[in-house]
Amino acid sequence: MEGGSGGNDVELVCKTLQFEHKLFYFDLKENPRGRYLKISEKTSATRSTIIVPVNGIAWFIDLFNYYVNTDEQDAFSKELKLDTKVFYFDIGENKRGRFLKISEASVNRNRSTIIVPAGSSGEEGWVAFRNILLEVNEEASRLFMVPNQQHMEPSEQLTGLSDDVGAGFISGHSAQSATASELHVDRLVDLPPQDDIGGMGMSKVIRADQKRFFFDLGSNNRGHFLRISEVAGADRSSIILPLSGLKQFHEIIGHFVEITKDRLEGMTGPNVRTVEPAQR
Fold first, then answer.
1. What percent of the chain has pLDDT over 70?
2. Whole-angstrom Cα distance, residue 81 to residue 15?
3. What's the pLDDT tens digit per position in 9-49?
4. Higher pLDDT, 248 or 272
5. In this structure, are residues 225 and 243 in contact, taking their beta carbons and an 8 Å threshold?
6. How far is it, in rounded angstroms, from Cα 97 to Cα 190?
7. 180: closest CA among 250, 255, 254, 257?
8. What average pLDDT does range 141-161 have in this prediction?
9. What does the angle CA 25 – CA 135 – CA 216 come to, to the nearest 5 degrees?
10. Could you tell me the pLDDT band of residue 233, with boundaries at 50, 70 and 90?
11. What is the annotated signal peptide range for this record (predicted)?
């Protein structure tokens, strides 16, 4: 799906971010071909734009989390495949400081690049950019929520992530393989605690093929529990695991990981991969 500037485009969400000498525009739009997020970078002299399919916003959030939370010397370039597009994420540095260069390559558009400064102290620029993406994705989740998800309890609607399963996956997947550890690093997302799970509040989500699995640590009048929810398309189902059984559950999962690790290491990986300098 390609975004355009035709008369059929409808603006759904518009946000701006000013950081240092740059102004970023985030425009969530819809046209007959689908929904997309247009991200434009404007300086006094230039303006450049990338077009992100709506199912790629969560992947952008994941990648910004990676660069925010990874030590400078340990951060690698990443390549993200979405539909017919490939996005390249590269860290660079100039006299103003560190920056993240995001380039979009597509068969339908000339290559386009935006530059997101890290900031003078830490990664506050990347954090601010990530937070806008979270806001856009949260509003997109509400706008595009399927009917049987509108009646979920608030604790089941995880802030900042859409339940649009399959986000970030392309038909047939990538032929690129990945190790088991890489699969976990690139798929894990930290989410804000939910109001209904008290002091122990924590939520995680992982992606596997065309499904998402949500892990919510909670409590009720019967005690603490871990709720594991499987989401596939418009379907969602959950199991509730008392904390008293969590250790046994972990041991059983570990058992199956151990006996299938040869197969796991050869499985097709997700569409986010680390790019070695020689490959680019």
1. 69
2. 25
3. 899 999 999 998 899 999 999 998 889 999 999 988 889 99
4. 248
5. yes
6. 27
7. 257
8. 45
9. 155
10. low
11. none
pLDDT in the model for residue 220: 72
- List of residues 6+ apart from 32 with CB closer than 8 A: 8
Could you tell me which of 31, 27, 38, 37 has the C-alpha nearest to residue 8? 31
Which residue from 230, 198, 200, 191 is spatially nearest to 213, judged by alpha carbons?
A: 230
Residue 256 has pLDDT above 90, yes or no: no
Name the E strands within the chain.
Answer: 10-19, 22-31, 34-42, 47-53, 77-82, 85-94, 97-106, 112-117, 189-191, 202-208, 211-220, 223-232, 235-242, 272-275
Is 53 within 8 Å of 66 (Cβ atoms)? Answer: no
Tell me if 63 sits within 8 A of 270, measured CB to CB. Answer: no
Q: Are 141 and 161 contacting, i.e. CB atoms less than 8 angstroms apart?
A: yes
Q: Which helix (H) or strand (E) holds 58?
A: helix 57-69
Structural domains of the chain sorted by starting position, each given as residue range(s) with its CATH number in brackets:
10-144 (3.30.2450.30), 203-260 (3.10.450.700)
